[in-house]
Design brief:
about 200 residues; alpha+beta; 5-stranded mixed beta sheet; 7 strands
Length: about 200
């Protein structure tokens, strides 16, 4: 029996794999555009809700603590007037990079909008507060700028509903709203601090 030529089949398989890899890359790029903030590369609101609620659902199933922190950069308007919008975008990106460096791999870091960021921590709010207590400095036009921010932090209260995914998204929304209220109060009374409620 003559030996069958396998070369054309191998070429076809190789081309198919290359095409599949290209499609996967394109899908990842589309996913990134949908889920990521263009200026900072962090998750946007859609990415926050998707991955933050997943984290809450997982932690709830394991009966482990999770907290939500809403952060707002202080005096951004003054920095914008001083350095201009493009440089302030660099500052926002640098602040986002700082957040991703201090959190753990499975924490979810997002830009919530404007100068607000949200972090979903794999830890109780006290531990999150300690991580955030580190000073933040960035460089703009060769000048070192110390950044100040105000934050509100809450632990997510686990109350299981029939559909954990929907419940987790609601829990995340509720935690963000509560942390944001704490943040707004802190902005008036104790700017530059991380405030928590019990």
């Amino acid at each position: 029996m003559p030996e069958r030529e396998s070369q054309p089949d191998e070429e076809w398989v190789s081309e198919l794999k290359a095409e599949q890899l290209m499609q996967e890359r394109e899908q990842q790029e589309i996913q990134d555009k949908i889920m990521k903030d263009e200026a900072t590369g962090l998750f946007n609101l859609k990415g926050l809700m998707e991955f933050g609620s997943r984290l809450i659902a997982e932690r709830s199933r394991e009966h482990l603590p999770v907290s939500v922190v809403v952060l707002d950069l202080d005096n951004l308007k003054k920095l914008n007037e001083r350095f201009g919008h493009p440089k302030v975008n660099e500052l926002l990106k640098a602040f986002g990079n700082h957040l991703t460096k201090i959190v753990r791999e499975y924490d979810v870091v997002s830009r919530y909008g404007g100068d607000e960021f949200v972090v979903v921590f794999n830890a109780p709010k006290e531990k999150a507060g300690k991580l955030l207590a580190q000073p933040v400095s960035v460089e703009i036009n060769g000048e070192k700028i110390e950044l100040s921010f105000t934050a509100g932090a809450v632990d997510v209260d686990f109350d299981h509903g029939p559909d954990m995914k929907l419940d987790a998204k609601k829990k995340l929304q509720d935690a963000i709203e509560t942390a944001d209220q704490i943040l707004m109060k802190s902005k008036k009374e104790n700017k530059g601090t991380v405030q928590m409620i019990n």
